[in-house]
Amino acid sequence: MRVPMLFIAVSLAASTITGARADTEADRLREALRGAITQQRALEDQRAALQAKLSEVESERARLKDQVGAAKAEVKEVLKQNREAVEEFNRRIAERDETLEKWKAAYEEAADVARAKDAERAKFEVQAAAYKASVKSCNAKNVELAKIGRDLLERYEAANFADLAVASEPLTGVRRVEIQNLLQDYNDKIIDHKVKP
Questions:
Q1: Is the pLDDT of residue 55 over 70?
Q2: CA distance 56 to 76
């Protein structure tokens, strides 16, 4: 950039020399040379400032690139942690579901046992009610049999010699038939009050 500016300045100075005086021309050339040097220095200062700015921008770019790299690494780490957390969460859900299925199976088994025990209890209650009714009936029949037995004993104790003689009377046999009918009635009562399983 230096040479073209100098060349421009010299050519400007040479073009102005052709029609004017030598002193004035030398002054003009000096003035043009001073202007060109000033302009050259301004351009060099501007170039130095731009280079400083460029190096600052490049360092800022490198810093931002490092930040982007760090951010990408952080995002990868966060994604990895998130993926691991999701996998852990899914594993725990699977374990919970498995445990829940075990509890359901155990509950169903316990419910089945409870239903079986309840059915068994109901069956035993029905049997117990039947046995109670049977025992009650047996007790009632036993009371009746005891009455029949006492009645027989009372009749046997009340029998005297005359009753025995009449009962064994061979002629008419009426008393004997009465005694056989009475014995048959007692036998029927005993059979009626006999417990039937």
A1: yes
A2: 30
